[in-house]
Structure formats: C-alpha cells, structure tokens
Design brief:
The structure is a single chain. By secondary structure, the protein is of the alpha/beta class. The protein has one domain: Ribonuclease H-like superfamily/Ribonuclease H (Nucleotidyltransferase, domain 5). Helices cover 36% and strands 15% of the residues. The chain contains six helices and five strands; from the N terminus they run ββαβααββααα. Strands 3-2-1-4-5 form a five-stranded mixed sheet. The longest helix is centred in the last third of the chain and has 24 residues.
C-alpha cells in the first residue's frame, strides 16, 4: 500500500516519530519533518521496513527536499526523571520547537501525545507505515540515534552498542552483569533480572 503524503490536505503538516524508546541505554531521539506537497519517493517507508543502507540513503534526500526538519533529544537522566512516555513527548516537542517553518497540524506516530502549544495533532497507530511525513521522521530519528550509539560504543565498547544500539539483547544484559552500568544506562529500566547485582562503571 502506498504511503499517503497528507492527513489534512492544504495544511502544513509535520510528521513526528521517535527512536530508542525500548533501549536500556542512551537518549531517546525524535524527529519532526514537513514535506513539500509535491514530494514523491518510492523507497520511503517505515524505517523498520528498510535496511540500514536504505535508511542512510534516504536521510540526505529527506533533509534536502523537506520544507523543514529537526531532531530532538532527551537524555537517559531525563528519562529516569520523567519516564520514557513523557520523554518521548518531550523529544518530539524539542524537535518541533526547532522547525524553521511553523506546522499547522502534527501527525504523531502512536496512540498518545501531549499537546504542543496550540497546534492541533492526530495520533496514528503504526503511522510510520501509513504517512510519508511520519516515515521520514522515523528515518531521521533512527539514523541520528544510531550515529549517537556508535559514538557511545567507542567510549564503552563492552556493551556491544555498535550492534544492539542499546536495546536489551542477551549480550547487552550479559555485559551489564559483568561490567556494571555506564553513565548512559537508564537506571529506571529493568537492566537485569536482579537489580541488586548492578554496580556503577565510572
């Protein structure tokens, strides 16, 4: 099924999506993208349906052709303070804040959102597989977060973040058990089966 370009025709719509919500470590990233009314791209789809190579091929296309785009970030410390749901909303708000064009309507991936100023919004479950602006946002959020986790991997290679990107794989949990936590781990998450085993890795 072809993805749709707009939900409400004639309005400047920003698609919003986040990446890294289920991760044990690292910031959560969100992107907001406003595409032009004549935008076309046969490859653009939900970032999870694309290969890593395709996502990185599409990123410069989105950035060059979008009327406006931005990425918002909320740190692991902030996630621990306000919880991941609120952190996801905050990351989207931070992305929308940076747009150089003011959107008239927001298309949000998922089923919940905290209202942004006076801009109306529509939540769409699995919206990244239905609407091009959300798909574009999902690609920017995912690729920028992957770049960030690769940089953190250089600092803490024991956690295998170059492969798992902070998600709770068996290897990641085993590394936490063996080496303790890093400053980038989300302490409010269940990092191990037994939280008492955790020790801090400076």
């Amino acid at each position: 099924m072809a993805l749709l370009l707009s939900y409400k025709q004639g309005l400047l719509e920003a698609g919003c999506d986040e990446a890294g919500r289920g991760c044990l470590a690292g910031s959560v990233f969100a992107a907001a993208v406003i595409l032009p009314p004549d935008f076309e791209n046969d490859l653009l789809n939900d970032s999870k349906q694309l290969t890593e190579k395709q996502r990185y091929q599409l990123r410069p296309v989105i950035e060059e052709q979008a009327l406006a785009w931005a990425v918002g970030i909320v740190t692991a410390e902030e996630i621990d303070e306000i919880n991941i749901l609120n952190a996801s909303f905050l990351a989207m708000h931070r992305a929308i804040n940076q747009l150089t064009v003011q959107p008239e309507h927001l298309l949000i991936d998922g089923n919940r959102f905290k209202k942004y100023k006076e801009v109306p919004h529509t939540c769409i479950v699995k919206g990244d597989g239905k609407y091009l602006p959300i798909a574009a946002a999902s690609i920017l959020a995912k690729t920028y977060r992957d770049d960030y986790m690769l940089a953190l991997h250089e600092e803490f290679p024991v956690y295998n973040w170059d492969h798992n990107k902070g998600y709770p794989t068996r290897k990641h949990r085993a590394a936490i058990r063996l080496h303790g936590v890093s400053p980038y781990h989300r302490m409010s998450y269940r990092l191990l089966d037994n939280q008492l085993e955790l020790k801090f890795q400076p």
